[in-house]
Fold:
Amino acid sequence: MYQNYLKLLDKMAKNKNRMSNEINAGSMADIAFLLLIFFLVTTTIASDKGILNILPPKQDPNVPPPDIKVNERNIFAILINANNDLLVEGEYRRTTDDLDKDIKEFILNFGDPDEEAVALFNSLPASLKSQALRRPESSDHPGEAVVSIKTDRGTSYELYLEVFDAAKKAYFEIYAERVGLTADEYRALTGDDEASKALQDRGKEGIPMAISIAEPNKIGGN
Amino acid sequence: MSKFAKKPKPLPAVSTASLPDIVFMLLFFFMVTTVLREQDLLVEQKIPQATQLQKLQNKTLISYIFIGKPKNTGLYGSEPRIQANDVLIGTPDIVQWVNQERDLLPEADRGLITISMKVDKDVKMGPVSDVQTELRNADARRVLYASSTKVPN
Structure:
């Protein structure tokens, strides 16, 4: 009786051994899918994307601010009040549409270029040259042109960013067109290697990105 | 004609043996790109959209500052607050915080510290400009206005 039992056990063990020779991998895909879906749901792809801005250096309270004389025509003034109304060059606007085009026109105006600016103008590709309207009331040349953004404390950050974005867009489009890239390609340049650094510098040369952000007025905020 | 009148052969079943491999590949991709959020957000964050985005290469140089309405309005009020690391700080503390963050960087990179400002859409310019003034005081002048890509319409 006992021996019979042992035999049975032996048989079972053998059977078990033979069974475990091959693990069924069919459910592997299911497990992988489960994990995949978990990571899909929990992933937030880190986005370190944004609009870069270099703030001006701190002002020394003992040194009076330098008295810089800039002609009115060389400033593209954008005012945004606490009601989120825009005043662009003295004109009321409801939206930021076409603001980038106006800024681009303003930068490339070449109303009264000096010798250096004439050389700069001659180095530009024909597509940019044709955008120089040479209006006397707009900027003298890109080296002088300043885009000024002034807000109130109550202005919404979203609208401010939209305007800042438009100003950046105008400059990037000029830079990109100069080196024969699209604005997206130009912005993607890292400046890590020689070639992309050279392209970047060639785009910027002589046309500084002059976006001035004034201290906000104490209206409508806290 | 007989050339074209062949009987169509029954198609062999598509092998699904490589399915697990494909799935694993996807799995690894998401595992690698996943960044588990290491800090709890105490303020609301609806990031605005913009078009002219730039990506920064060196992530170690970036420190994050969050500005928005506190989630727990009962405790912190409903005015926009500033969060750095995982605490809410006041505007005057920013200089100290920037200096701490800067000290964590290797010496050669300290001048290149970039502050990524993650500001909620509904915040007004007042707090934003206060923070910027403090950042100027701390001489951390590279600022990134964090924003997501706007789809042009």
In short: The first strand of chain B starts at residue 49 and ends at 50. Residues 19-33 of chain B form the longest helix (15 residues). Chain B has a mean pLDDT of 84.
